[in-house]
């Protein structure tokens, strides 16, 4: 006997994208991933790298920051030092844990045990602050223990034999007795705390590493300040080279802006060159704290490599060389460079003058 199925079937609705416009970036990489979600995909090594970057954002709080990797780190992942004594001075420990769940008491007890044991054995002075850092934060239970130090210590004692004693080192069991127990009794458990992932991200956003890790691009550039009337000392080299190029072109001796009398086209070119220089200087300052070290310098290198042959070519005079090189620069396509979206043609011309200022480009044979 045939039994008719009573299961009702329905067509699967295809999600509509009619209200969005596809972009090249979307088609290439898919929708952006929220930073907190991206952190969940890290392995323990990348998580420690991220925390190391974050700690650098804490500014003048620390004299130096070091990341300890590999076996035998004695429970020190990222150490931040406030003085030159490092592990024997005043320092903070950032204990990195990257698990598929929030950090629980058992995880914390073992790390606290390591801190107690190795500081007792004078491997390092106890840190003045000890942070647990995990992408999913700490569990409610651990959070409550960290907020109540007497209960944290009591919980450690209770869990010691099962969770801690045999896992501190691979060579022996560490018993909570004798001088070591007296050391633990007197230890300041208020140093242990947890760092909130969202706060970490908020502070990491201020580092030059954030954009490369999480994308999103640079913010809009501020307007460039008005050109100063007088030549600043840091403009001395490239402006001197321009004066030599103008002298080569005109046959007149041009050593200061006052010598442009009767030469309006050269004066205008000089003013445009200074404007371009300051435009590129504003870009350099703009990206300095928003990108990794060397990012702007790599843009300068790209421009230098692109215009080198033009600069070395034959030209009727120094000014002709300047014009040929800066024209070549402003027409460059640097789409693959991370600063491309924030770079204008005038910046590229200005970079040529920055390179001249650094003695990487010359306009006249006697420069």
UniProtKB/TrEMBL annotation:
Residues of the ABC-three component systems C-terminal domain: 235-363
Query: Pfam families given for it?
Result: CTD6
Q: What is this protein called?
A: ABC-three component systems C-terminal domain-containing protein
Q: Which InterPro entries match?
A: ABC-3C_CTD6
């Amino acid at each position: 006997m045939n039994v008719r199925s009573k299961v009702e079937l329905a067509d699967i609705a295809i999600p509509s994208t009619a209200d969005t416009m596809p972009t090249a970036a979307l088609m290439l990489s898919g929708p952006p991933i929220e930073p907190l979600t991206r952190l969940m995909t890290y392995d323990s090594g990348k998580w420690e790298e991220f925390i190391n970057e974050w700690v650098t954002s804490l500014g003048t709080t620390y004299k130096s920051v070091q990341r300890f990797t590999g076996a035998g780190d004695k429970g020190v992942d990222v150490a931040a030092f406030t003085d030159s004594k490092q592990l024997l001075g005043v320092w903070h420990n950032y204990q990195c844990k990257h698990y598929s769940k929030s950090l629980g008491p058992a995880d914390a007890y073992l790390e606290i045990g390591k801190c107690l044991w190795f500081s007792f054995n004078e491997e390092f002075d106890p840190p003045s602050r000890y942070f647990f850092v995990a992408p999913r934060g700490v569990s409610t239970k651990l959070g409550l223990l960290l907020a109540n130090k007497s209960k944290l210590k009591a919980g450690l004692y209770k869990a010691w034999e099962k969770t801690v004693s045999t896992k501190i080192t691979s060579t022996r069991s560490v018993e909570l007795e004798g001088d070591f127990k007296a050391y633990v009794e007197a230890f300041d458990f208020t140093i242990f705390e947890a760092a909130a992932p969202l706060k970490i991200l908020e502070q990491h956003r201020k580092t030059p590493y954030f954009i490369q890790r999480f994308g999103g691009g640079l913010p809009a550039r501020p307007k460039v300040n008005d050109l100063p009337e007088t030549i600043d000392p840091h403009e001395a080299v490239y402006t001197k080279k321009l004066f030599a190029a103008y002298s080569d072109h005109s046959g007149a001796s041009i050593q200061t802006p006052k010598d442009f009398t009767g030469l309006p086209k050269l004066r205008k070119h000089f003013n445009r060159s200074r404007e371009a220089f300051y435009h590129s200087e504003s870009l350099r300052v703009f990206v300095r704290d928003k990108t990794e070290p060397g990012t702007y310098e790599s843009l300068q290198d790209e421009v230098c490599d692109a215009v080198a042959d033009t600069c070395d070519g034959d030209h009727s005079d120094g000014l002709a060389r300047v014009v040929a090189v800066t024209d070549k620069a402003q027409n460059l396509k640097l789409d693959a460079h991370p600063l491309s979206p924030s770079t204008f043609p005038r910046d590229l011309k200005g970079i040529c003058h920055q390179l001249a200022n650094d003695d990487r480009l010359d306009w006249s044979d006697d420069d």
